[in-house]
Every structure is written in structure tokens, then in C-alpha cells.
Amino acid sequence: MNQKNPLQAAYSHTKYQLANHGKRNIQVLKKAFQNIEGDLESDMYGKGQIIEDFQEKMAILLGKEKAVFLPSGTMAQQIALRIWCDEKGIRKVAYHPLCHLEIHEEDGLKELHKIETVLLAEKNRVIELNDIMEMEEGVSCLLLELPQREIGGQLPSFETLKQISTYCRNNGIKLHLDGARLLEVLPYYQKSAVEVCSLFDSVYISLYKGIGGISGAILAGNQDFIEQSKIWKRRYGGDLISLYPYIISADYYFEMRSHKMQQYYEEAKELAGLFNSCYDISTLPLVPVSNMFHVHFHQAKEQVEPILIEVQRQTGIGITSYLKEIDETTCYFEVSIGDLYANVPKESITKAFRKLDEKMKQRFHCK
Amino acid sequence: MNQKNPLQAAYSHTKYQLANHGKRNIQVLKKAFQNIEGDLESDMYGKGQIIEDFQEKMAILLGKEKAVFLPSGTMAQQIALRIWCDEKGIRKVAYHPLCHLEIHEEDGLKELHKIETVLLAEKNRVIELNDIMEMEEGVSCLLLELPQREIGGQLPSFETLKQISTYCRNNGIKLHLDGARLLEVLPYYQKSAVEVCSLFDSVYISLYKGIGGISGAILAGNQDFIEQSKIWKRRYGGDLISLYPYIISADYYFEMRSHKMQQYYEEAKELAGLFNSCYDISTLPLVPVSNMFHVHFHQAKEQVEPILIEVQRQTGIGITSYLKEIDETTCYFEVSIGDLYANVPKESITKAFRKLDEKMKQRFHCK
Questions:
Q1: Which helix (H) or strand (E) covers residue A330, if one does?
Q2: For residue A237, how far is the Cα from the chain centroid?
């Protein structure tokens, strides 16, 4: 059994939780398969109705010629960048310093592909047109992440996106969308997925974040790009004999949640407001532009932790199971709104935040 | 819907099938999860009880310090070879000309790792000690596949394996086992998995062949090797947030079938005997050394196909759904014995083979 630390334990014993869709347990799979007939045939190495139908559905959603289902976003994006590098003949790409490929993939892009990376913008802000206009020559592909997850989920304006897209097209730079949370930003932009994706040459979306599937990713683009992606999928060992456990669950939760992104976005703004009303707490961004944001405590982690444990124990409201230290005077956690928030009684939320504010004041005000 | 060709159609309408465990459909997953509690927590990026327990069980089975679960054998073996190349500092490996990495992976090993390959032995036989003693210098790792699948599942003697292992150890060459079908060869060798694996530095086994899970692979070796493998797993995009759909089903079918390999082996020998009793048909190997073999027809594919369609339609016994052309006078298909064979009535089998022999004679004898 996994040992839980006190904050995890306090969170796991709460009656209600503010964020996410619920526990990542086996029930997630069981529910998705409940009404699937047992005699439905497995996909076979990328072929068959289950995978082909879902790929087509996702291609239409994103307004691209073709799409391919891959086990992970890591695989999807490395493949995309490699294809665009090969097309231009230069192994150089540009992205944000906190891009998933730069900080979460053990340097797979560099170790597997010898692709050089150019980091654009400061860590604490999104990439703007100027960053791209000033970047060094010879970049084959620019990756934009919408929203920029590691800084709480921030977005450039849609106007900026359009300008970046035009600039890239005029300068022979391919534009790839890290849209792990693409559906989650559409309510803010007030655009369809097709409208956003039309600015990009290739698009990746995740199937287990806002959608809440088990695992898996979609990579979309033109026909030639996707045909090449399928070859790389095989090279990576991602062309599994059966991917249906992920595909069927992705489709099930897509149908259940893709129309709820506006709701999650509104709830995220409401919840962020509650955090911002508490002493020494603020959210990043201050007003969310998707279903996600970061909650910053302007105090040391070991001093905030006991407060969060106490508030969660006393109110039964699950706020967070962890805190990450930024420095000696700041710590934070991430919130992604999912199905659970709507089920938490409003008066319990109000009570919990009153308590949190009180405890923070008691502990830190005029100390 | 997938269109079936006439041979596929005839096979799919048979009452009994000689090979395999049954259809690869969604029921395979449903059955494995039937008795799993919904509140069991998912594995999370390689951590958690489900994945850690299974990895430990497989490490014990194979007699290695550690094991890691990976989505595919393709990923597992490329990773193993890369680690051994890095250790020696030379990117050169040796294997059989029909090795999975050489013919089924779109050259992933070369495209992702720039690893040079040395092909040992002729295509139609297994690697022997002499091939290794005569091979060029500087090979970091030798991969042996037991059984050699593409030639019907053939094996070197256990004595040869021991000699190869000793030679490699004395000459600083790492020895990797492609044991996709390792459990399937143990009855022939009359050895435990631990005894076979002790001859190798690293071992891969597949979880959806003889075991009949959905997808997935185990890579096993010493602790340092597995720690490095986990880093590569992340680089490849194989470190999925949840791998439990594959792990739980692998464990379920492992428990159901790992003790049945002797039975499959005996049945394979019996069935091969029946094929060999037919006119112009022979199996490779003539006497199987595992649950698998190839069935060769010494006639053109388009002439054999109508016969197989007719026999399957008339007898209700499923022999094969496809034929592969070798040249204008030979075609073949592969047989892997699984759970189904034991359920086919003996008299129906006898009748089907009598019919097959008759039709082959009628069509080809003294033509």
C-alpha cells in the first residue's frame, strides 16, 4: 500500500473535493465499458473500426484532414516536431522554457532525435509575436502550448495567435499546437476547435485531462503528416496490437464532457475568486482563462500545510492533496475544474473558505 | 465495417478454430476486469500498487532483480539495446536477419538511436555459437529470439545457449533475450524461466502471445538497467499516467494460462503431425518446439486458397484466415496453439484433415 503523508490523508478523507472529475480508479474504465458489447472486435495495430472511427471523429473536431491515436502526448509531440524538422532539413525547434518537452520528458526530444531547442519568452509569461520575430534563424517548427500549463494556464490573445500564425507561414516555420487542454480554452476564446486549429499545421490534444479518459492522445494534421506519424508511431513502439481500452474510454468521456468546458471555465473563475478573497493567497492567473489555475500561498510550505490539513479535516471540503515549494516564502498547487465542483454544496464551500481565510489571518497577519 | 476476403469469411464462419485463445474482442478486457473492485486506484506514471506488484512478480518469475512494464515489446527491446550500447560506448548490436527489430519496426532502432546492426546466420536457421565467434568486433549486445518466430518458432539447443552465454560474458558482449514467447519454450527445454534467463543480461517477454493479454511487455534485468529503462520509457512516451488496462489483464491471463504451456506444446506437436500427414503440406519446424509452427503448402497461394475455403466451409473447422505467399510455388500461415484447440472434438479434427488431404491430392497429385 502507498503511504499517504498527512496532507494527502486529510484530502482523501474529505467528503467533497473542489477539483477534478473524481478518483482515478478502475471504475473509470468499468463505467466506459459498461454498455460496450463484448463481441466488438479489437483494433489491430492501428486498423479496425474502433480506432479508425475515433480518429475520423477527432480529425473532424479539429478541422484537419487526418488524425492518429497515440498512447501519449509525449510520443505525439516528439513525432510532430521530428516530422517538421525532417521536412525543412534542420533539427531545430522553438518553444516556451516550461514546455512539457523541455521539463517532463527526460530530454526525449534531444536524446532520440538530436533536435536543438530554442527557448522563447521568460518563464513567467506566454510567448508573444515579438519573441518569434526576434528569434534566431533556422527554426523548423514553433510549438505553442494553449494554455501554458506550468504558469497556471495562461493564454495569448486570439489576435496574437493569428499574427503568430501569419508570421510563421510567411517565414516557412511550421506551427504546432500543444493543445493538451485545447477544448478547455475554447470558451475563453469564444472560438471553435476548428477555428483555433486552422492557425496551426499540426495539433495534439490529450484525452485524459478535461475529457478525463484513461490515457491517450490525438495528433492531427494533413494526410501526408499523419501517414508519417503512423510510421513514427511504429518506430516508437506505440503501434500497439490493441489500443481500445484507451480509445473507447476516451470516446465515452469525450461524449460526456466535451460540451461542459464552458461550465468548468465559469466554475474556475468562481473558485479562483474565492481563493483570491483569502489572506495571503492568490491565483495565477488572477482570473482563469480555462478550467485551470494555480493557487499561490505567499508563505512557507511547512507553515501552510498544517492550515490546509486542519481546514480540510474540519470542513470536509477537499482543497488539495499536495503543496509544491517555489521558494522559502511561496508554495502552490494546481486546480483543474472537472465534474466534482458542481456537486459541492455552495454553503459548504463558503464555510470552508471563511475558515481558510481565518486560519491564514490568525497565523500570518502581523506576525 | 471491415470487408473480409473469402478466406477470412470462411474462417470466421467456422464453429471451431484450431489455433489461438479465441477472438480478440472487448470481452477479453471485460472478463479480466469482472472481479476487480472499482475503487482500486490506478497506477500513476509507473507508481502504485497495481504496476509495482506486477513488476515484482515478473522479476521473480524471470529471476532478475527488477522488471518494468512497458506498453510494447518494440519499446522494450530498443531501450534494452540502447542501454547496453551506451554502457559499452559503441552503437552496434547483432541479431538474426528476421529479428523483429529488423523487419517489423520501421527501422526504429536505426532512426531513433543510430545503432548499427550486424545480421547473424542465414535467414532459414537459428544463430549458433560459430556465428557469434566469427562475427565482427565491437558488438555491444547480442539479441537472441527464443523461439525464432519468423522461421516457425525454432530453437537452438540449451547447450548452445549456455555456450553462447559463456562466450558473450568472456568477450564483454551483453546478451539480451527476445523472449516474446519465452514461457512457450520452457516445456521443450525442460527448464524454468529463471534457468533460461540466468544466461541473459536482460530479458523481454510479451504479455499478449501465449499469455493472451491485451497488450504490453515486461523488460527485466538488474536494478541499474531497469532504472535506466524507466528513464527511456519516459523519453519514449511510454510512461503513461495509467497502464492498468494492460497490467490487470496481463496478470489475469498469466494466472489463467502460464501453467498451460506444456499442454499447448503437446497439442502443437499433435496438430503439426496432422498437417504433415496431408499431401503437399509440411510444417516448420517438422516437430514443433513450442506452441507455434508454420504450415507450408508447396503450391501457389491462389490455388491453395479455394481448397482451404471449401474445407473450412464443409467441416466447420477453422484452419486459417489467411495465406502468405513465399514464392510462386509456396505459401504458408502461422499457428499458435492456445485455449481453443482442446475444445475441438477430435473426430471433427480427423474429418477435417481427411478432407484437406483429399482435396490437396485431388487438385495437385499427378496434375
A1: strand A330-336
A2: 24
**Cβ A245–B38 below 8 Å, yes or no?**
no
Distance CA(A263)–CA(A316), nearest Å, equals: 24
Whether residue A12 lies within 8 A of chain B, CB to CB, comes out as no
Average pLDDT for A70-82: 98
Please, what is the average pLDDT of chain A? 97
What pLDDT score does B4 carry? 83
Q: Is 70 exceeded by the pLDDT of residue A170? A: yes
- B104-to-A45, B109, B209 alpha-carbon distances in Å: 12, 11, 16
pLDDT at A366: 72
- Asked whether the beta carbons of residue A40 and residue B48 sit closer than 8 angstroms, the reply is no
Compute the distance between CA of residue B243 and CA of residue B71 in angstroms, rounded to an integer: 8
Going by C-alpha positions, the residue among A214, A219, A181, A230 that lies closest to residue A74 is A219
Mean pLDDT of A83-107: 98
- H-assigned helices in chain B: 6-12, 27-33, 49-62, 73-88, 100-103, 108-113, 129-133, 158-170, 182-189, 193-197, 223-235, 244-257, 261-276, 301-315, 346-364
Phi, psi of A19 (to 5 degrees): -110, 170
pTM of the predicted structure, to 2 decimals: 0.97
Which chain A residue lies closest to B44 (C-alpha atoms)? Answer: A24
Q: Report how far residue B45's alpha carbon sits from residue A86's, in angstroms, rounded to the nearest whole number.
A: 30
Cα dist. A178→A148, A167, A196, B157 in Å? 9, 18, 12, 52
Between the CA of residue A142 and those of A123, A206, B185, B328, what are the distances in Å? 16, 19, 50, 51
CA-nearest residue to A23 within chain B is B41
Of the candidates A27, A38, A71, which has its C-beta nearest B30's C-beta?
A: A38
C-alpha cell at B300: 501457389
**pLDDT, position A344:** 98
B314 inside 8 A of chain A by CB: no
Say whether pLDDT at A1 is over 70: no
Beta bridge partners of B202: B176
Task: Judge whether residue A306 has pLDDT over 80.
Answer: yes
Q: What is the secondary structure of A216-248 as a DSSP string?
A: -EEEEE-HHHHHHHHHHHHHTT---S--HHHHH
pLDDT at A367 over 90: no
Which residues lie closer than 8 Å to A81 by C-beta, 6 or more apart?
Answer: A93, A101, A109, A113, A115, A140, A141, A143, A176
Q: Is the CB of residue A242 less than 8 Å away from at least one CB of chain B? A: yes
* B324 at interface of A, judged by CB pairs closer than 8 A: no
Q: How far is CA B58 from CA A295, B67, B223, B225, in A?
A: 42, 6, 14, 15
Contact between B242 and A214 using a beta-carbon 8 Å cutoff: yes
Set of chain A residues whose Cβ sits within 8 Å of the Cβ of B37: 26
The closest alpha carbon to A10, from A274, A293, A302, A305, belongs to: A305
Give the pLDDT confidence score for residue A215 in this predicted structure: 98
Q: Sign (positive/negative) of CA torsion A166, A169, A172, A176? A: positive
Is the pLDDT reported for residue A69 higher than 50? yes
Q: Is B229 on the interface with A (CB under 8 A)?
A: no
> Which residues from A are below 8 Å from B28, CB to CB?
42
Residue B2 has pLDDT above 70, yes or no: no
Across the A/B interface, how many CB contacts are shorter than 8 Å? Answer: 175
Tell me which residue of B251, B344, B253, B339 sits closest to B291, measured CA to CA: B339
